[in-house]
Specification:
Shape of chain B: globular
Structural class of chain A: mainly beta
Largest interface: A-B, 20 and 28 residues
Number of helices of chain A: 0
Oligomer: heterodimer
Strand order of the largest sheet of chain A: 1-9-8-3-4
Chain lengths: 111, 115
């Protein structure tokens, strides 16, 4: 499974757009990029998954450049409730649920 | 999305006793479930893969005799922490994959405190 690197923490203010970038230089051809969100004392929650270019859902957008060596999770107009840890994972689909988590990015949204 | 439920949400036990944590897939069948452990301010660490009807597969460094996993049905996996000690205090989380994308769905986690 490809190793990922993310910023340890980020600060933002309510209403701003937040972009969290993840590096995955050793991504394999069959690998997908998946992001999870985790609130304190809760299990992670699936946010978005993509393979290339751009993916958008009701929660976030995922931007993946042509070389796929990095990806950016974009959260539009964050609110206080978006304060959480965000994990970027790379692997074949979702590895059937077998996931190797990196350190994650602790996002703090301030009023 | 699919729902994975864990029970209990939290448990306090005395050192030397055993604790069982249940993980259920409520609206889908899961031939494979996964168990993770998370210490404060750290990431999730995969402990083992629970396979329905067969032995679990443990990650390197995880003691199979201490963390007993049973996956007797397609909707239930259990993790038993045997002879628990304070260093076993942690947040235990299970997951299962479902849906066309195979994304993983996580339980709400179980906070274990050994005193």
């Amino acid at each position: 499974l490809a190793k990922t690197t993310q910023p340890i923490s980020m600060d933002s203010y309510e209403g701003q757009e937040v972009n969290i970038t993840c590096s995955h230089n050793n991504i394999a051809t069959n690998d997908y990029i998946t992001w999870y969100q985790q609130f304190p004392s809760q299990g992670p929650r699936f946010i978005i998954q993509g393979y290339k270019t751009k993916v958008t859902n009701e929660v976030a957008s995922l931007f993946i450049p042509a070389d796929r060596k990095s990806s950016t999770l974009s959260l539009p107009r964050v609110s206080l409730s978006d304060t959480a840890v965000y994990y970027c994972l790379v692997g074949e689909g979702n590895q059937g649920g077998k996931l190797i988590f990196g350190q994650g990015t602790e996002l703090s949204v301030k009023p | 999305g699919a729902v994975v439920s864990q029970h209990p949400s939290w448990v306090i036990c005395k050192s030397g006793t055993s604790v069982k944590i249940e993980c259920r897939s409520l609206d889908f069948q899961a031939t494979t479930m996964f168990w993770y452990r998370q210490f404060p301010k750290q990431s999730l660490m995969l402990m083992a893969t629970s396979n329905e009807g067969s032995k679990a597969t443990y990650e390197q460094g995880v003691e199979k005799d201490k963390f007993l996993i049973n996956h007797a049905s397609l909707t239930l996996s259990t993790l038993t922490v045997t002879s628990a000690h304070p260093e076993d205090s942690s947040f235990y989380i299970c997951s299962a994959s479902a849906g066309a994308m195979g994304e993983a769905f996580f339980g709400q986690g179980t906070r274990l405190t050994v005193v």
